[in-house]
Amino acid sequence: MKAIILSAGQGKRLLPLTEFVPKCLLPVCDDVCSLELQLRALARCGVERATVVVGFGSEVVERFLRTTPIPGLAVDILLNPFYAHSDNLATCWLARHCMEDDFLLLNGDTIFEDRVVRRVLDGPSSSIAVTIDRKPAYDDDDMKVSIDDDGRLLAIGKTLKPEMVNGESIGLLCFRGSGTKCFREALDRAIRVPGALKAWYLSVVNELAQEVSVDTVSVRGFWWREIDSAEDLNEARRSHPEASGVGAPQIAAAGARS
What is the pTM (predicted TM-score) of this model? Predict the structure, then answer.
């Protein structure tokens, strides 16, 4: 099992913190950034190779990866030179040559405890599996999912009608066997469609769910966070299972958006 981490974005909602440093390198757990937290968790769960797709601040991220080895994990770096003009569908498509064998696909702004990865790896060997969580209500920014009684994905997107929503994607997917080729070929088709540079790769998964079986894996009750804003970063710093309560300072939300 390998992993592909999409970390090409700047994180503009975290400005000015991300004016020169991409959000994947912002300290979360004491002095440890989200990218290192991801890599450590993957290594502890038996993943042996990871490809990190970089874009904004690529030199800084590459230097960090060269100087921060993760025991048991080989790390490759792939550049998306078009990060400023594309969303994560294009970033994902650029990594398609890494999708020959079974792999995990991670958003660069999603951090999680080890149990999340183990639940996915130890679960049923679905060809395509979307990791989901549930909560009482969902906002416009949540990547919402609709599933049937057997946990099969029916639809995924930010604009699903409230009565359809059964949970949200946490930004971690698993592809095995025929699912790897299926997803790779779907990316090739999607990138040719007008407007593809501004599309999300989960729109491809949404279309695949209409054609093939896409399963879901619930990690309800496990710790994970998506870091998009100052509030998200502060909350992750307070609640991370490994946090000591000292180190990374809390930041003012208003200042972070200025």
Answer: 0.91
